[in-house]
Automatic annotation (TrEMBL):
Keywords: Disulfide bond, Oxidoreductase, Redox-active center, Signal. Residues 40-235 form the Thioredoxin domain. GO terms for molecular function: disulfide oxidoreductase activity. This is Thioredoxin domain-containing protein. It comes from the Bacteria. Belongs to the thioredoxin family. DsbA subfamily. May be required for disulfide bond formation in some proteins.
């Protein structure tokens, strides 16, 4: 009760007074009785205060987790699309065989085009089985050769299951050195890179793809208002900066 009362008074010191024309009691016992009576007659105030407290705690916990993993999210050398010198960075956890990742990709491209001060850091978690894991190895290897955005675009716009063979065919058509890709894809370093991304996803409790992180806000799945949410979160970063980036 004390916590709820403190929250109420902190949020709106005049809130209790506005419920009545009478002045608040001056003594502690009278004030306690007044507050108790007010809350019993207005239980929704307790609900709203507790919800606000829970939301604030969730935001604080999210910020702590993102700050703890800041380097892994933003400074780990993951492939990127968009403006390299962007003011706003979006982190996307995805999989090339995730249907929702493919479904939202046109919106993401549109967002990057309309917001040239943004970029997307791509975290491929390869959560859709062995084919996805093999494709992830190829993509990690191919990214070392440059021209990554073209490869990413081609793979995200494929129809049907993307396999190792199909990914290699796509890369070959884009002029990548396939022998080098195969060698780099089989390297221990590549396996460690993918494992680090998957471990990061586990530590951040990423259990759905796609998941977009913008500042300390997240957008999961393929909501109809994806562009509106990304735009709102990006604008918040522009105005207020990013505590966790």
């Amino acid at each position: 009760m004390a916590l709820v009362c403190a929250s109420l008074l902190a949020l709106d010191p005049a809130g209790l007074r506005s419920a009545s024309a009478e002045p608040l009691p001056a003594d502690r016992a009278g004030l306690d009785a007044y507050i108790r009576d007010y809350l019993m007659n207005n239980p929704e105030v307790v609900r709203d205060a507790l919800l606000k407290l829970e939301q604030d705690e969730q935001i604080a916990n999210t910020k702590r987790a993102l700050i703890e993993h800041k380097d892994a999210l933003y400074a780990s050398g993951s492939p990127e699309i968009g403006n390299p010198d962007a003011k706003v960075t979006i982190v996307e956890f995805s999989d090339y065989n995730c249907p929702y990742c493919r479904a939202t990709y046109p919106d993401l491209k549109s967002f990057l085009k309309d917001n040239p001060d943004t970029k997307v850091v791509l975290k491929n978690v390869a959560s859709f089985g062995k084919d996805s894991e093999a494709v992830a190895h190829i993509v990690i290897a191919a990214a070392k050769q440059g021209n990554f955005e073209a490869l990413h675009d081609a793979l995200m716009t494929q129809k049907g299951q993307v396999t190792e063979e199909r990914a290699l065919d796509v890369a070959k058509g884009l002029g990548f050195d396939i022998d080098r890709i195969k060698k780099d894809a089989a390297a221990t370093e590549t396996a460690e890179t993918l494992a680090a991304t998957q471990n990061l996803a586990n530590q951040l409790s990423v259990n759905v793809t796609p998941l977009y992180i913008v500042g300390h806000q997240g957008v999961a799945g393929a909501p109809d208002d994806l562009l509106a949410q990304l735009s709102a979160h990006a604008e918040s970063v522009r105005k207020n900066g990013c505590e966790v980036c």
